[in-house]
Amino acid sequence: MKFKYYLVLVLCLLGTLNSPAFAVSEDDHEHHDEESSSTTLTPAAIADANFKIEPVGAKSLQFTQTLFGVIAPVNSYQVAISATYPGQVTDVRVNIGDKVQQGETLITIRNAASGREYSLTSPISGEVTFREANRGEFAQHQTLLKITDFSEVWVELSAFPEGIEALQKGQQARVYDLHKHEHASGQISYIAPQMTGGHIARARVQIANPQGHWRPGMHVKTDVFSDTKEVALAVARDALQTFRGDTVVFVQEGNTFTARPLELGRDDGEFVEVLSGIEADTPYVTHNSFLLKADILKAGAGHHH
Asked: Which residues are the signal sequence here (predicted)?
């Protein structure tokens, strides 16, 4: 009697294990396949993600060399003012830092020979950057004032030996303050023929300074555009993601986004040359592609657990 009871119990358990309640859904397995490289999103999810989509295409890659330097006044934009005739200084109307206009009276001197007073006026508009004149002093041929026009300034750059060969006069350059609050553009106008004692070559860029932001002595960073390469295919650097050991972009087909492994070439910091892995005009995600990577990996992790 006990044997029959146990036999019935075992048969009931076997029947329960084979019931639909324990079956694995094939659809769920495919949806959470941890090796999937695609994800399909609703139109609302795509809109919320704020993706930017662009077609793969040709680009002109701009390669730069980054140099550091310091702002300096332009030599030809400075004037030194001294007495026309020896005499006693009777009036000084400006101080260091004062802004002056061309033709403005700066100093009055009594001519020692004639006893008559004459005035020294500013030959340019600019700022007083030097003063060695005081009332009652005797002026001869020494410099009394210096006026500097800062509407344009020099960027004195330092280049190491490995980078000097890539520098040429006329190359375009973009200058940034070290906080990147402002930038200005110019050209390489001078490359020193000799290296300094520290094996550094000097190069120079002249930039406009209408607002006076670029002050002498300010340290700056400069990107010099040293080379250009036309490539048939390139993708935005910000679009690239590392996905399961490959460098990929996510291509769009309708509401489905798929990781596409790429073989890459030269990189100019903004765009990267594509050697293989994608065709021209393929739409791909250039902004917020990391959200797609996270969505696919999250689905795979959920299936794994």
From this structure: 1-23
